[in-house]
Amino acid sequence: MTPEHVYLHPGEMFSSSETCVVTTVLGSCVAVCLWDSLLKQGGVNHYLLPYQAGKSPPSPRFGDGAIPILIGKLLALGSKKENLEAKIFGGACVIRAMQEGGRRGAGSILEPRMSRWPKRFLKAKRF
């Protein structure tokens, strides 16, 4: 049974075929949301950095592990890759925003590497 509400901490992910509200708080972290509009199911991850150093097993704390794991969870629920839509959130340059002294709009500054990487990754996976 799926809970009504799920809060994701960094390094966590959630997927379901049932209705559920998923929330998280992002700064420099990134969340990738995948939705299958045909089957009405989806998932979201919350990762900290794009790449994991070394040869450790894939981890949901890093984008290069979190995105494929999330895709795998949705495929296991019956989704087809070609039916998945992606939305990407987060990747703010929090340090730069703080250096801006809280000026209007400073919180919207994005870290290019963090915000562009998931788009390139998904494109390479043919999304």
Sum this structure up briefly.
The protein is α+β, with helices and mostly antiparallel strands and 127 residues long. The protein is 26% helix and 23% strand.
Descriptive keywords:
127 residues; 3 helices; 4-stranded antiparallel β-sheet; 60s Ribosomal Protein L30, Chain: A
Q: What's the number of domains? A: 1
- Termini, distance in Å? 29 Å
| Residue runs with pLDDT of under 50 for 5 or more positions | none
As a percent range, the share of helical residues equals 25-40%
Strand arrangement across the biggest beta sheet: 2-5-4-6
What is the name of the CATH topology?
60s Ribosomal Protein L30, Chain: A
Structural class: alpha+beta
Q: CATH class, anyone?
A: Alpha Beta
Give the amount of beta strand, in percent: 15-25%
Radius of gyration over alpha carbons? 15 Å
Give the second-level CATH assignment, the architecture: 2-Layer Sandwich
How many strands appear in the DSSP assignment?
6
Largest β-sheet summary: 4 strands, antiparallel
Number of helices: 3
Quick check: average pLDDT? 84
- Run of helices and strands: EEEEEHEHH
Shape annotation:
globular
